[in-house]
Amino acid sequence: MTSKLSLACSAALIIALLGYLYADSLVFLSGYWIGSEDYSHGMFVPLISLFLIWQARHRIAQVGSGNSWWGLAVIVAGLVLYWVGELATLYVLQHVSLWVVIVGLVIASIGIRGARAIAFPLSYLLSSIPLPVFLYASVSSQLQLWSSALGVGFLQLVGVTAFRDGNVIDLGPVQLQVVEACSGIRYLFPLASLALLCAYLFKDRMWKRVVLVLSSIPISILVNGFRIGMIGVLVEWYGQGAAEGFSHLFEGWLLFMASLGLLILEMWMLAQMGRSGDRASFVSRFTWASPNPIPAEGLQSLHSPSSSTVASASFQPSNKRFLGPAYLCSVALMIPVAFASTFIVGHEDVSPPRTMFVDFPMQLEGWVGTSLTLEKQYIDALRFDDYVLADYRLGGGQPVNLYTAYYRSQRKGQSAHSPQSCLPGGGWEISSLTHMDVPASSGMDRPLHVNRALIQKDSQKQIVLYWFKQRERILSNEYLVKVFLFWDGLSRGRTDGALVRIASLVGPGETEDIVDQRLRRFVATMEPELHRYVPD
Description:
The protein has helices at about 1-20, 25-35, 45-55, 55-65, 70-85, 90-115, 120-125, 135-155, 185-200, 205-240, 245-270, 280-285, 295-305, 310-315, 320, 325-345, 375-380, 420, 480-490, 510-530; strands at about 165, 170, 175, 365, 365-370, 385-395, 400-405, 430-440, 450-455, 460-470, 475, 495-505. The protein is α+β, with helices and mostly antiparallel strands. It folds into three domains: about 1-130 and about 305-345, no CATH class; about 135-285, no CATH class; about 355-530, Protein Transport Mog1p, Chain A (3-Layer(aba) Sandwich). The strands form two sheets. Strands 4, 5, 6, 7, 8, 9, 10, 11 and 12 form a nine-stranded antiparallel β-sheet that branches. Strands 1-2-3 form a three-stranded antiparallel β-sheet, with helices on one face. Helix 8 crosses helix 10 (about 205-240), helix 9 runs antiparallel to helix 10 and helix 9 runs parallel beside helix 11.
């Protein structure tokens, strides 16, 4: 009784410490699981993992269990990752840190051999973690283009006249835009998670399991392309309303079930492959029984009357087994870290004085600007503290569009979004992504090394320059942005910064070189003014 009480108190303390330490991370995760259809499967993953661990209890008892000091080392690595994620404003590092700490606690309590017996259930938890925003946007953007191409191919196959401009399908009187929600990513993540689970339960050769998991990617892409093509057919027959409302939602669920059916069909086909002596029925290969069951003699010994007491005792929690020195030290380590996190999380970033963008000049050495306004949906998504959006003209030339978003504190969930994920859309595609040097001139105190993107839609071209102004640094690499966010947040208490983006169309009779020169001239004029609004 005392052993059970000690174990229960220890478990309650661990849950409380993890809940306190990772409160923001858990709130973010639950919000994603509930509010995003892409990760709606995530809420079931911990429950499935717990069930698989319970199912493997016999194997844990069979291999034996005991405390391991390696668990403490793993926990330390997880806590270091926690601080990096906190200071670098990356939720994904917080999520991975929580997983690493959980793995460390398991190793500390039941040893490496015991943890190895439940390696898959522990690893399966990672499938519930959302991708980083910049990686998610990149994957989604590419899936949009693939799905659009497959949708147009299906439409042309059934005789419907359709053309593709980037992620826009032109049906003549109607244009369908394959937005992020229709990219197929909401098929890909749940189907890949299901494929992992099926591969674990599919008792067959490893190469078949690998093929099963990898096949979830083309299946989800092909099914989503077919769905988009089917929506195009319905729009052609019944009008624009067929692409909206219940029918759109129903088609999504129906085809997801179809993709799951394809996965099961593939498992059946894989089960038929191999030598006749190796073949077994599909049901016997796909079962909820443990993939590595206890040998018959092991089961016999567990259930024999003479060993019933030993078997039952092997599943009884005891202080000796779970509450050894490695486990207790792991718990003791987390207590001061949890309290220390209060000062870090509650710490206010240093905010240098600056001028608001509402006062940004609309006349810059001959450039005349027209102020523009972003729609509320974009403001809510980007979560900046201040911004300027304007079109500038020099004489009668082509306009140059300026967009700058300032973030007073780039903490988790609030940071500059990479234009690489925002530029594709409305039929535009990135043709090339390189770098450009803007030499110091006029009032500029330093040359700039910026990103240069050429985007194209039909015969139209547009050149986009962008960079990240992070404190006194000019950065073109978004990964370096995160590195310096961590360093400056730790050493200076500052995480403020901005994204600067300028763009101009390649006008009739113009070359890309002409537009590059126009953008360089505008940067040389605008950049000195920017210091008052985005301070060093």
